Amino acid sequence: MEELRAFASSVPDFRRLDKGNFRHSLNDIIMLMILGRMAGCIGRAEILEFGRYNLNKLHKMGMLRNGVPSEATLCRVENGINDMDMADRMQQFADIFLERLTCASRIIEIICIDGKAERGTVQENGRSPDIVSAYSFSTGITIATEACQEKSNEIKAIPILLDKIDVAGKIVTADAMSMQKDIVEKIRKKVTMFASD
């Protein structure tokens, strides 16, 4: 929980803090959204209901001293946070969390790389976007993702995905289409670079 709170606190506050009266800290709102989503809440109304139902518990954790924010506040925060900053902080948090899980389990991590079309989402060209993911089989966590560029496929996205993850000392699996000579060579180089450091 402390790591999660550190992550929420690390997200830059986009609001003009020198102007206005802010009843809720940004990290409290982010924590509410994360905990609500972890509890299966999807929309803002469900997240706020989760907050109201668990307000006493959240108070004991030092959160939401001024009560649950309004739906309009939640909407402003969702729209105001810089997506790339949030993604960078989330990646750092996920890396730390994953490392602790793998150390605790004391097993060799298996990373599964695979591409899937995102059904239900349609791009301007009428196609569903293709996403390549690196999934930690040992911990059940998606480590990183990379969207395939338009008129491209997962063969070109996998090297970019590999730049985001550490594969040293791990087993990497992928389907036959992904096992291209350049991709295998990139995995070998990443392991060699790690071994020589």
Order of helices and strands: HHHHHHEEEHEH
Q: Determine Rg (CA atoms, Å).
A: 20 Å
Instruction: Provide the spatial order of strands within the biggest beta sheet.
Output: 3-2-1-4
Q: Total helix count?
A: 8
Q: What summary fits the major beta sheet? A: 4 strands, mixed
User: In percent, how much strand structure appears in the residues?
Assistant: 5-15%
- Rough outline: globular
* Helix-strand category: alpha+beta
Termini distance? 32 Å
* Extended strand count: 4
**Average pLDDT, to the nearest integer?**
83
Uncertain stretches: none
Q: What share of the residues lie within helices?
A: 40-55%
Description:
With about 200 residues, the chain is of the alpha+beta class. It is about 50% helix and about 15% strand. The protein is built from 8 helices and 4 strands, in the order H-H-H-H-H-H-E-E-E-H-E-H. Strands 3-2-1-4 form a 4-stranded mixed sheet. Strand 2 (about 130-135) and strand 3 form a beta hairpin. About 20% of the residues are buried.
